[in-house]
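Here is a typical sample entry:
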Amino acid sequence: MKKGTSRFLAGILAAVLVFSSGADFVFARGIPTSIKSVIPNLGAEGQTEKERTTAVSGSAATWLANQSIAAIEGSEIINGSIEVEIIAGVEVKKVQDFQVIVKNEKGEQQEKKVSLAASKEDSLSPAFVQAKFMDLEEGNYEIQILGDGYANYYQKIKVEGLHYKLKIYTGKVAYSNSDSGKPGLIVRGDLNGDGKLDKKDASDLVDKIEEKSKDPRYDLNGDGIVNLLDLNYLTEWLENGKSQTAEPELIIPSRAISGKAGDTTKLTGDMEQFLQGEAGITLAPENGLEISEDNPVELSFDFTRSKNPVNVEGIILQPQESGIITEGEITVLYGEENQIKKATISAPSGIRMLATSQNNGITAKWDENGVLRIDLGGQIAVKLVTFRITSTTGKGNLAEISSVEFVNDMESKIPDPVMNIPTNLQAIPGNKSFVLQWKAEMNVTGYEIKISYKGITETRKTTMNKIEVSSFNKEEMKNKEDYEVSVQSVNGEWRSGYSQPMIVTPVVTSVPDRPDYVTVKGGYRTIDIRWGKVKDADTFNVFYKEEGASTYTKVTGITGLSYQVTGLKDNTKYIAYVTATNEIGDSKKSLEAEDRTLNGLIEAKLPAYKLINTSKGEGVLSNHIKAATIGGGGIMVDSPLDKTTGSALGLFDNSYKSYVEREDWDYGGAYPDSVKGVTVELDQVYTLGMITLAEPIDIGSYYYVTVQYWDENGTKQKATKATIGQRTSGDRKYYIIKLNEPIKTSKLQIGVGRYGSTPRMVRISEIRFHAYDSLEQDIMDLYADDLHIVLKDNVTAEVIQKLQDRLNTKDTASGEFHPDRESLQKELDMAKLLLETELSDVVQVNPNITAENDKSIAVGGMNSWQPLGVTAASGDQIVVYVGNPGMKAGASTNVQLVFTQQHAESSNFYKAVNLKIGRNEITLPKISSTIQEKGGALYVQYNGNKSTDQYAVRVSGGTKFPILNLYHVPEEEYSKKISTYVQELKAYVAELETQHEKLHSTSENESVAYAYDAKNCILNVTDIQMDKVMISVPASQILAGLSGGNEEQSLLNAVEAMDNMLTLFYQHKGLTDSFAEGTDPKVIEKNHLPYRYLNIRYMKMFAGAFMYAAGNHIGIEWNETRGMVGSSPVVSDENGKYISGRYFGWGIAHEIGHEINQSAYAHAEVTNNYFSVLAQAKDRNDSVRFKYPEVFKKVTSGTWGYASNVFTQLGMYWQLHLAYDRDYNYKTYATYQEIFDHLFFARVDSYARNPESAPAPGNIMLALDSGRDQNLMRLASAAAEKNLTEFFTRWGMQPDAATLSYMEQFAEEKRAIYYVDDTARVYEIEHGTSASIAGKNVVTANASEKDSEVTITMNFTGNSEVLQGYEIVRVFTEQGEQRREVAGFTQENTFTDNAAFAANHVVIYEVTAIDKFMNRSSVCQTEEVKITGSGLHNKAHWSVSTNMASQDDSVIDSSETDPCEPTPVPAIDKVIDNSNSTEFVGSAADNADPYIILELNQLTEVAALRYSYSSGGQAITSYMVEVSSDGENYNTVKEGTFTKGSGETIYFENGEDPWVCTYDAAFVRLTAVGQSGKKISITELDLYGPSGDNIEFLEGGKNSIGKLQSEYVYDTDKNLKIPANSIIFTGVYKGNPAYNVVVLYDETGKIVGGTDSTGALVAHQIILAPDPKDAMLGETSEGTWIYWIEPSDISGVSLPNRVRAELYRVDNAITNEGQRMVSDTSFVTIPENLPTISINP
């Protein structure tokens, strides 16, 4: 604010408020005392005093009859009291302590210490604290307030038997609607303790800031830091100046009042507490019926306790939330002669102004909160006040009052301010969104919307009275969650304060998505069904059935994410699916899943090969078992053989009913000790080679085993390298524990444990011991290596045959073959093969493909799986051989086997198991329960960090499939490898279905026993492994994608295209494997390409997905898989300009972007799309996904937050690329340094990986510690080495202090890079910048306005080839200074600005041409235009109906697209088509008045109607206008006769006040009264709402400036006048005289008239308005203002050549707080020779 202007607006123009003798009301600003009327005292509505003193009746009569004269006079002297309320005027984050002292004339004092609480961010009201001093005798008192860091506050007050309430604000006055009197101010910032606030304090604070002091005394806002924010606070307080004393609110003390309810009224509550303002009361009829005229409630207040008269001027009744008084009667007994005032009060309905009721000299007024203020028409000595209440809101039986105040002095004629706090908030919930709308406010330029959710608050800005919100805290909104919203109006720095908050809950608008990740797990006669979380689901339904059954059983109302079905059959397959439900309905069904229930207590068929503890029968202890015990928490269940605790003979009783159980995942297998597990004693020493065991029911798998034994000397030993493996026999599982070496023992201890810690239960039912047989070891000894690919030298065919004969020989005792006969046969077959040929299926594990190598480059989403070319089914037993030179068999490795599920859901599609050197027997687990083949491709994963590791892997088992391995293969070898792969692929795919029938259809393995389905067969798989990506998709789809030509060339093209595209992507991330010689190793470490690769996999899609990116893969579906080989390399010239070719689609690049996004600034669904654009952009505006007009709209909107459209938001990142990269899009570079130098985001990501390397010219280092937005702004400024504050601010981002500090060390970016597009960059690349128009005069413009729309037309005189577009800026002038805001950017020669928000303001438009280099021309200004403040409503959503028929009513013919009877097209629609060239002519039937109903389709403020008709038509004459909110109940707002030519505007009234009245209406009915049968002509009907305050000079400045001919007395009572020969300025205004201020400025921005030596203004002003009589001052449309300089001051004033007027509206009619400019005028010329002007009284 300009210096001096604030002083002006805080106490402007000393004058008075009076009534003139005519019909006008004069209001002038700045009166410190109460304002009084000088109208002749005729009482209410002209009654004489005698007429107003009526017969005593009712409660007053009853009261009088019961009083003695003495009692009426009163006997008690009521002392006064003082209440000091200290209110937080500014936000302070720590408690403030104050000492309040009241001292009388004798020097006696009372003292109270109070603490003002710290400000709360979520509080709508400021903190306050009160100090009360009661029972004060009459006399003079001094009030003193002392506070640490505050200047001392002093005030004197005279106490005369009243309660004096003073409101004192800290730091800054914030006037409230409910305030009476003038608030005081105690200023903060006395830092040196001298009791004053001055520049010394500011100097001290600056010193402390420079010292980085932590002294809490200087932390003015209490945030724990002494910084510039504290200096801002202090500067503001210094500007406010010294403390100001409060004008007390004068209230009748509660001690002077007693109250009671009427005889038929029931009062609930404590009357004494009520009168003291400590509690509310409720009134109800004794009969319990509704309050009405015939059944009222009464409340009386007796004032006769006081000896002295109790003078009351007004009464204020505060309501509670309901039961607000709306109708009744007030009776006042007063004066020495017991006179009576009696008036009915009634709140008018439907009027959207302060509701008032006047009757018999008493005015009752309700505000929007239901507060009832009663003005008694002046101070009177009240004895009794009785309220007779006959109606309340809701028409209920309760009247609820929270407090009552009897006021000694009400400010006459000054209504509460119109704060323009938005009202009628309405929320329309949507799906993850809501639309918020409210009543449009006048005299504001926009709105701020505050949204709060779970402790987080965000603010949005808009110039409209409607906003759609679909995101919060940078995420989409959540349905069924409560968001708190409120709205405030804004005008420059002025804020109205927020509306009452409301709760908005986004709602679902569709059924939920189907549940994903459904699994079924069979248990003992149960199945457990689980599924993933589903958004917007309330409950779930489970459907299940037995395989083969025709119908499902449905279970409803499940609230969790799992369900167990019980009571099922043993060993039976069940199928299940799930649906999700909400109030809209049920989702689609999930994928079906299946599993088999457990096989109950069916015996597991344990092998009897070489069995030692042979059976004696079920329930009988086996042979050779001497004893068995358990410890470590295990217990025996259902074992008749075990009578004592710890005994475990039941494990050897050949019965599955008895078993040991321990509730944990491990029982001595992973963590052995001396007691965990089972300890067994045999009857003698045996040589053991194998142990088998089984569970009572198969509930999981065992992975860990430990075997301990006592040797022949009794020493306890641990069997080395014992392994446990799962086997299947029939429908049951069992486990084989193999001992690496035979052990001789008669006592041993066995412990087992689960894999993955689930389930947390160990159970064993039977254990068998098997004598050692060397057959397996002898077969293994055929091999010289761990991979079993090299035979020992002594191996011959004869040796192998002997082993074959042994393998084919059954055990004599049991008649069984070796239990691993099948796998051992494969070993012999391999040995036979090796005698004849060499083996080539060994996979060398690449030790560079590991996460350890990529730690320093911070790229997520990578995969390190290395394909083995083998697919296998769940339940298959395979053997994986692992070798490594120098490592012994059985040693742990850094290699894992990864087993995947083909075509799986994303949540659970693989499992990994650690491998050891040598032979690893693995039974592949089931991953999925979806109804499809279960199994998939196998991979190895290296988890080490040694590039010298030499692991090799071979797999025995499963089915081999073709893979293409191009990882780090020289490009010259590509063709050969691709050719071989294609041939293998053709052969493999040709046999797929045959192989399925052979291996799967008749398989005993239930996991693959399905009919052939190419989409789900686990054989249909292939892997293509490249440097940067591995593609894992169906083999048949790869071949199909290559069909139609040369397959080898097509695949080579696709491989090259993928590699080139990813090279392009990685270069924009600053990643490469090409570094110039001598590059710092640290640079290479941080910026090399990933060693791992992306993995694009064939997967199922979750609900709503087309593709997706997950932690280590990108999922695509069947139709998209063939596209992975359907691309061709992009061909570009040496500068990267596109020539031909096509990279992969938007979707795959989008998902790749998710995986490689730089996490420091990643914005999901936005920054990943940068790579999608990069893959497709051909340096043309039409080749990017977003629309540049939407980008330009965002960067000129002035709104905070992201663009609502993710593609528009993407434009911000793309513009940074365009602004700083100077080659075409497809350009790539040879070395890292070239990449870094040429690519903006290469620098951004490089600095993100290594912030220490970022530039810091001001020694402020880059820190990435404040979230993605702040990180991005810092990184981008570092990459550009420019301060990009304006760029990001234009995009709605708000840099914090740390970000500003970092960015401001760079030179400011002067170019308007937020207007760059692809075409502009190409022009600069191809033509250079020599043709720049920077600073040149190359544009002219003019502006025209109509109905708040301004059209700016531009003419460009420069080289049009370099023109990028025009920036349009609005220029407002306020307080004599210009304020600018961007209106828009256009690439056309015209621009239309919808400036309704700036109604009644004068605007100059500045136009700047922007060239294709983003430089600005010189600025061109248009002429001034004043925005029309007509309040005209938009008719886009209206509809209209009538009872008139017209010959133009039509019905269109039916057609193929509308075969049924078409809807008639009524001619009445012409009256709302915004065209005066169309006319409706119609008539109503006889005896029916014609009418037209405008249906507005939302509650709308209406204040006027304009009726237009053609000059030759028949006009409506007599009319009636009615409004309605519901279409049924109408209220008449205007009656009269249209008299003017072709149209007339009529303003609505309420029949009582002289003001224009505004109504909330959804329907407006215009009736042509008494004109039935007459043809009525209408061209257009328009409605107007409030148009806002306006100011003009008379006649545009003509005859409105001059010298006053003779003095003008405007207050005869006080003889206030404008002297003759004063220089006067005069004009008209529209507004509220109580809250309007006029200020005149000259061309230099100075106030006309200037100031005197004390700083006070020389000029004076008065504002005139229609006389309101007994009403409050209201809005006027025809007021007059006069501004003058008196003759005595003229000599010191130099008149300017031109002058303009500004009209302000303030929030406080007394203090002028809260000013905002609401209208202004263009400059008018002051005549060289001032004319003489006279004022007609």
About this structure: The first helix runs from residue 5 to 10. The longest strand covers residues 732-754. The chain is about 15% helix and 35% strand.
